[in-house]
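Cast an eye over this sequence plus tokens and explain the fold to me:
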Amino acid sequence: MGYRWGSRSLARLSDVHPDLVELLTKALEHPDCPCDITVVEGHRTNERQAELYAKGRTEPGPRVTNAKPGQSKHNSMPSDAVDCGPCDRRGDVLWNNKALFDAWGAHVKRVAAEEGLRVRWGGDFSWYDGAHFER
């Protein structure tokens, strides 16, 4: 038996497009799911998108997005994008474990193909974004 979403992840999925929630839930609950997953973010306001876009540009830290406000699939309502990734038992994302992100991404794409569902994974983008999935 696979994993299940925790309450924090379920709350963050509440504003994500139902097709994307369905796919990620099927992938998470699938017996071959490689790891436990937590949802980092679903819908983003334009203000939140601007805050993230500023990182590594006008604010300290590494760049985390190339999308300006209104340009991200996270900005639609419901959101056509969600960020989620492997986590430890406390629900903390294992950001430094690229192998787990890659395994999760490949798993989601496999489940999508089996179910006839559409998904794009950020690990396949020219700029690696292993936590990102969009419809």
